[in-house]
Amino acid sequence: MYGLIDCNNFYASCERVFNPLLNGKPIVVLSNNDGCVIARSTEAKVLGIPMGEPAYKLKALIETNQVYVFSSNYVLYGDMSHRVMNTIAEFAPEMEVYSIDEAFILLDGFEIIDLKVYGQKMVRTVTRNTGIPVSLGIAPTKTLAKVANKFAKKYKNYKGVCIIDTDEKREKALKLTDIGDVWGIGRRYAKTLRYHSINTAWDFTQRTKSWVRHTMGVVGERTWLELCGTSCLEMETPSDKKSICTSRSFGERLTEFAPISEAVSNFAAGCAEKLRKQHSYGCVLTVFIHTNPFATNQAQYYNQTVMQLPVPTNDTTELIDYALRGLRTIFAEGYRYKKAGVIVSEIVPERPLQGDLFDTRNREKFSKVMCVMDSLNASYGRQKVKIAAQGFDRKWKLKNEKLSPCFSTNLSDVLQVNAKE
DNA sequence: TCTGGGGTCCTAGGACCC
DNA sequence: TCTGGGGTCCTAGGACCC
Predict the structure, then answer these.
(1) A184: nearest nucleotide, CA–C1' criterion
(2) What was the pLDDT predicted at A352?
(3) CB-contacts to strand C (7 A)
(4) Would you tell me which residues have their CB within 7 A of strand B?
(5) Which nucleotide is the nearest neighbour of A99, by CA and C1'?
(6) d(Cα A23, Cα A408) in Å, to the nearest integer?
(7) Of A25, A124, A167, A269, whose CB is crowded by the most CB atoms within 10 A?
(8) Domains of chain A by range and CATH?
(9) How many C-beta atoms surround the C-beta of residue A186 within 10 A?
(10) What is the mean pLDDT of residues A237-261?
């Protein structure tokens, strides 16, 4: 059996843990740049605030209902996620952290115990240890565990745990599950399937395997098999990223080269750090910039450049150098830029390095510099040491006007809050 | 005025090989 | 008139996930 444990309204719940006055109040958390809604408390969902809605469209609704609004605070959420995952790990020998707020657990060998009792204990313990409410779905396949999880969330009397362990329960659950809510069925496939009169997960399982294969390929076929009770998706171990991207929308529109180059330098530095963290080098670097595609009344521009690096690298100074060279080739005057980004791809492991005959760079020395920079930043805080090109202006920086303090990781944040109170 | 950021996998088609 | 068979690799685009 597989279990899927998932935090309820994760980001909203994180905001609540350190601010109990928010209990019972509607909360929304906004995306970077305070753009759109990416998390809602139950109360906010009841008010009809949709996921992904741009914040400015909700102004009136937020004011009349006194909705608490937060900018996203990924330092806080990341730390709370660790705490949740650590607690879950105590309950299951094999675990796959699937996302910031979800983990699969393998429950093989647990047949002799009462999974319901065990699951409820797990759910209670996570909430007690971390303050984050969670739900657990248990079933013979990952996709069915996802289905079970939705029921665990929906019905209070399950006490956070729902188990699908018989064909009768499976049939009942699938008949109550909208086809669009199935893991692996996105907007596009949901539309196609509805066109074929498939409205529930059960309807889907009543089609033949070959029809599904023909309509949706092997991925759809796997979903079909999993819903029918045949496990195709196993536990996965985390693997190195095959591409790494750092990109942001700017807090304000930028027209000048200088602040954009500062932003791109920071994005390249971000990619370099991520590469070093997983002990990899990148061989290809992509830089892109674009204007605001929603502003249809303004001149639009999108461009990107892809560079093959002569020697694979994870050196911040080198990646910034190439990123800025790339930016110069695609930057055009006369546009109001909204967003830029840097992508590293063709990622290879750090060890065996194919040298370049004409390479003049002292790689050993620079690698030591990076090492020192990383350890200083680890001890004294992010960006304590950085490359001059990353700048200090930060004109490009995001808007996050409603940021909560980093309660769980930053002592000075906490002291400030206490002083105010 | 104001609309996020980061990933993965699969497929079809073209270019090329013998 | 009649024009093979079997591969690989790469890329762009489309689908999905959180």
Answers:
(1) C16
(2) 58
(3) A 98-102, 146, 182-190
(4) A 31-33, 35-36, 38, 52, 54-56, 217-219, 241-249, 253, 270, 274, 292, 294-295, 338-339, 341, 343, 398
(5) C18
(6) 19
(7) A269
(8) 2-139+146-160 (3.30.70.270), 167-227 (1.10.150.20), 244-390 (3.30.1490.100)
(9) 10
(10) 93
List the single protein residue with the shortest CA to C1' distance from B1: A56
Residue A212 parent element (H or E) = helix A209-228
Q: At CA A140, angle to CA A134 and CA A141, rounded to 5?
A: 80
Q: What is the mean pLDDT of residues A134-154?
A: 97
DSSP character at residue A296: T
A185 CA: nearest nucleotide by C1': C16
d(CA A42, CA A33) in angstroms, rounded, equals: 23
- pLDDT tens per residue across span A295-344: 888 899 999 999 989 889 999 999 999 999 999 999 999 999 999 999 99
Write the pLDDT tens digit of every residue in A344-354: 999 998 875 65
Of A321, A288, A292, A318, give the one whose Cα is nearest residue A303: A288
Question: CB burial class (10 A; 0-12, 13-18, 19+) of residue A238?
Answer: exposed
Q: A313 CA to B11 C1', in Å?
A: 32
Q: Which residue has the tokens 């980093």?
A: A406
pLDDT, position A173: 98
Cα separation, A59 vs A48, whole angstroms? 13
The set of strand C positions with any atom below 7 Å of a protein CB reads: 14-18
Tell me if A368 sits within 8 A of A315, measured CB to CB. Answer: no
Q: Is the pLDDT of residue A174 over 90?
A: yes
Q: Token pair of A248, please?
A: 């942001």
Give the CA-to-C1' distance from A214 to C1 in angstroms.
Answer: 38
Question: On chain B, which bases lie within 7 A of the protein's CB atoms?
Answer: 1-12
User: Nearest 5 degrees, angle CA A266-CA A271-CA A273?
Assistant: 95
| Rounded Cα–Cα distance for residues A314 and A370 (Å) | 9
Per the structure block, which two tokens stand in for A266? 């920071």
Residue with tokens 């002990």: A279
Of A222, A251, A241, A253, which is closest to residue A349 (Cα–Cα)?
A: A241
- Which residue matches tokens 């954009």? A260
DSSP SS3 for A211: helix
Tokens of A332: 């055009």
Given a contact cutoff of 8 angstroms between Cβ atoms, the answer to whether A72 and A400 are in contact is: yes
| pLDDT, position A354 | 58
